[in-house]
Design brief:
Butyryl-CoA Dehydrogenase, subunit A, domain 2, 4-stranded antiparallel beta sheet, binds flavin-adenine dinucleotide, 3 domains, alpha+beta, Butyryl-Coa Dehydrogenase, subunit A, domain 1, 13% strand
């Protein structure tokens, strides 16, 4: 089949769309892909790329994007439906989520017609993976302190600086880069966004080894990198407002499936415990009974954040600071759950069966990755600050623009 052709049947919306998603997933999920099934093998990058390209052809990516840019022209309602169904299955995380969920929406919002046609189809077809170059060694929570500098060079830009914690950079073809065109003291003014090519001369990617052994993120050094004018996104001064929109999306709509994946993880944990007599006894009443019940409540709260966000966006309203509520609750609750899951599974006797071994391996990975969830997309302290300042409007001693 031509990889550019979508197989989404025309006229699908609402419940027929859910039926389509379920049928498509039932027919297409590759063997060994589901982390809660026996025989799970963590797929490599090539397998993930192929899978996500297939999901796009099947109508499960770029759902709300206009068809002229490779999207499917449906609404956020269908986006939510697809995310619920994807979340219910223990599928791998997207290797291009920063492209699909951050770069794409921002390009749709501030890109030129030519840029939309150039960047969006290859992104959905998984021919171009994107990373996000915002954070720097001294500009994380306080993003407005960033120092990477973009200076005019004729009609092009010349970029020098250093980014850190750039997820997916070793595999990326493009970077959504935030750089400074004005003075550092200007903070929010004089910041610009670029679609930087990762193979441009002067770009050096130095992978960082994480505690789980993977090298998923990296430092990115830019040494006199020339970025053509056509790769500048929005006006030179529009970078901060665009970045704030990117971050609001990151907190509220990114990985909309997370509540349903969280539920899948809880169900997997309970199933694995029931498969072992020692663990099954721990579930019978007592502290674990109560803590697992609390997890159900946490999951329902995360779900309850999603619908109003979708409704607001469908009504043309911005999500604003409410994204912080979702991000804060999900990340804290998921971290608590991951610790609970490991605590339970580690009480299995030596020689526990394959169901317990597989769950233990999955929850070890989840536990390690959950440590980062209260840091990326704005730390817990930053979310609490936003809620206190902007939702509760509490008085504060000093005003400092956090991420
Ligand atoms: C797994 C992972 C992936 C990431 N991927 C990317 C990526 O792809 N692209 C990218 O650009 N960045 C990425 N980041 C970076 C992430 O956005 C930053 O780590 C985050 O914004 C925090 O910044 P920092 O690490 O510099 O910590 P700091 O800002 O130095 O914070 C250190 C501590 O001080 C606290 N603190 C800071 N300011 C305040 C304040 N005003 N009030 C109260 N407490 C405060 C923080 O909560 C934190 O506990 C990633 C991070 C992680 C962990």
């Amino acid at each position: 089949m031509d990889r550019d052709v979508s197989t989404l049947p025309p006229g699908l919306a609402g419940d027929p769309y859910r039926a389509h998603v379920r049928a498509w997933l039932a027919a297409h999920v590759p063997e060994g892909f589901l982390a809660d099934q026996p025989g799970f093998r963590a797929p490599d990058l090539a397998a993930c790329r192929d899978w996500e390209a297939a999901m796009h052809r099947g109508g499960l990516a770029g759902i709300t994007w206009p068809t002229e840019y490779g999207g499917h022209g449906l609404s956020l309602r269908e986006h939510l439906i697809a995310n619920q169904e994807i979340g219910r299955r223990a599928l791998p995380e997207s290797v291009n989520s920063l492209g699909k969920e951050l770069a794409g929406p921002i390009i749709l919002a501030i890109g030129t017609e030519e840029q939309k046609r150039r960047y969006l189809p290859p992104l959905l077809q998984m021919r171009e993976i994107w990373c996000q170059g915002f954070s720097e060694p001294n500009a994380g929570s306080d993003l407005a302190g960033l120092r990477t500098r973009a200076t005019r060079d004729g009609s092009a830009w010349r970029v020098n600086g250093r980014k850190i914690w750039t997820s997916g950079a070793p595999n990326a073809q493009r970077c959504l880069l935030l750089a400074r065109t004005g003075a550092v003291e200007d903070r929010h003014r004089g910041l610009a966004l670029f679609a930087m090519r990762m193979d441009a001369p002067g770009v050096t990617v130095r992978p960082l080894r994480q505690m789980d052994g993977r090298e998923h993120f990296a430092e990115v050094f830019m040494d006199d990198v020339v970025i053509d004018a056509e790769d500048a996104l929005g006006a030179p001064d529009q970078g901060w407002s665009a970045a704030v929109r990117v971050l609001a999306i990151e907190r509220a709509t990114n990985r909309m499936y997370r509540a349903w994946r969280f539920e899948n993880e809880l169900n997997h944990l309970v199933r694995a415990c029931r498969a072992d007599a020692t663990l099954a006894r721990l579930l019978d009443g007592g502290a674990y009974h109560r803590r697992l019940a609390e997890t159900v409540v946490d999951i329902e709260i995360v779900k309850a954040h999603v619908e109003p966000v979708v409704d607001s966006l469908l009504a043309g309203e911005s999500i604003g600071d409410r994204g912080s509520l979702m991000k804060l609750h999900w990340s804290e609750a998921h971290q608590r759950f991951a610790a609970l899951a490991l605590e339970l599974l580690e009480q299995a006797p030596p020689g526990a069966g394959p169901e317990v071994q597989a769950a233990r391996a999955r929850f070890q990975r989840i536990y390690l990755s959950a440590r980062a969830e209260t840091i990326y997309a704005g730390t817990t302290e930053i979310q609490l600050g936003i809620i206190g300042d902007r939702i509760l409007k509490l008085p504060r001693e000093s005003a400092k623009g956090g991420r």
